[in-house]
Amino acid sequence: MGLIATATALVVTQRSDGGDTASDHPDPTQTSPAANLPDPVLADGPTGDLQTVPQVTTWEPADGPGWAPSDTTRVVTESGSDATGAADRLADDLSVDRADDGARASDVLLTIDPNAGTGPEGYSLTIRDHQVTITAETGAGAFYGTRTLVQSVRADGGLPEGSVQDAPDREQRGLMLDTARKFYSAAWIEERLHELADLKLNEFHLHFSDDQGFRIESESHPEIVSREHLTKDEVTSIVELAESLHITVIPEIDSPGHLGAVLDANPDLQLKRADGSVSEGAIDISNPDSAALIDDLLREYAPLFPGAYFHVGGDEYPALYASDPEATYPNLARAAEEQYGAGATVRDLATGWINDRAATARELGKTPQVWNDGMHAGGKVQPSEDRQVTYWTGREIGAREPQEYLDQGFPLINLNSAYLYYVLGEPNEFTYPTGEAIYNEWTPDVVRGSTALPEGQGGPQNVLGARFAIWCDLADAQTPEQVAEGIRLPLAAMAQKTWHAGEPSGTWAEFTQRVDDVG
């Protein structure tokens, strides 16, 4: 539903998420020649500070009437512009017309200027003489400018007079969802995508394979797919909506652990101990058929997810938790020495496995991402270059400080489990994170525990950003609706801290009120 009402005939429009909606506002793709328009109706905006989440980088208030949408407001951008998608969505949000030219008072003008100096996701927004102008280098920047406008309209009815210069501190800002342990519908996921977009978050990490389920239709290996799953058509719709909201969907197929659902259908590939017992959820990385299966899946799903990244997992391989991995898993020990020479260990074999999966991802045009505990120190085999490390824990066996990864040239994405892990049922000493702790204590450079990286060792070049993670270890502990409500404030707080560098203005209570006002 739009933010304001206009007196027009009922029309049927095609929503960006694929559904038809009857609405009492104009077709957002309609163009209106200025010569045929009535005189503009000028509506004054609010006074005072700009209300947004996250807060903008700089806000310069000015004397003047501000701007509010009126019956004559249009969203104007040049036909074929990279801002067309953002303009169409804004027109729908405001229940107003679209036009290709002839911007005038009461209108919103979106302009793409490659030389604007705003950066790839930044924008400038100027409110002057009852008109709003949003300028950006890219469609993404223009879109984020419209999110600032929409939030201000929701909170205060319009925009005060002044100007904004805004751009994110970190390039990766997102949400991770474990839909393997607990199925979430396409509709629920699409609701979260709209929430992410309003918060200027730009990534959605989909963990769809684990011991408890494999949640996307497969044509290469249909036997592994769980009863409750997303069809490929549903995934395509999710990805298309995400792209329209400037969100990259990052798929994850975790291996060589967390493969229980895959192995239920392929028991011959299960890892076994020397005594013949099965290592639950672990694939036998000494068996060439294991690599062939996982690479089949990587190749099948890469085209479904056209974004730049594929997460290949690497965490919590049970063989590495044995007190003596070589004695407990002699087949792995033999394979390690056969592949990497005398003295090679099971850890080398595990490192080689992730190197191979990362190589497959790169062959498919993706930058591989891996969990930090899939990166093993020492040994004969070293992790391959050109990957990004999602750092979540400092309590795994052989735990290493974030700086060790940076020293080896691997950039980090912050998934600090002390602040950013929402684990259903709170098992294993996890507690539900609070937005207040994120807002008051955490920054993107607080990668492990509660202490930031030393000055000069963090920053946007080393810590690329952060993700808030929903893990569903005890799947029935909360309903999807409870999860959505539980993550609302923590996600907003993380958005604040990844977009805007430095201390936020206002208390936590003031921030939560602003979240409510702009939502």
Automatic annotation (TrEMBL):
Protein name: Beta-n-acetylglucosaminidase
Pfam families xref list: Glyco_hydro_20, Glyco_hydro_20b
Gene3D superfamilies per UniProt: Chitobiase/beta-hexosaminidase domain 2-like (3.30.379.10), Glycosidases (3.20.20.80)
Sequence ranges of Polar residues compositional bias: 49-58, 70-82
Family: Belongs to the glycosyl hydrolase 20 family.
InterPro entries, per the entry: Beta_hexosaminidase_sua/sub, GH, GH20_Enzymes, Glyco_hydro_20_cat, Hex-like_dom2, HEX_bac_N
Boundaries of every Beta-hexosaminidase bacterial type N-terminal domain copy: 51-167
Taxonomic source organism: Streptomyces xiamenensis
Keyword tags: Glycosidase, Hydrolase
PANTHER family registered for this protein in UniProt: BETA-N-ACETYLHEXOSAMINIDASE (PTHR43678:SF1), PUTATIVE (AFU_ORTHOLOGUE AFUA_2G00640)-RELATED (PTHR43678)
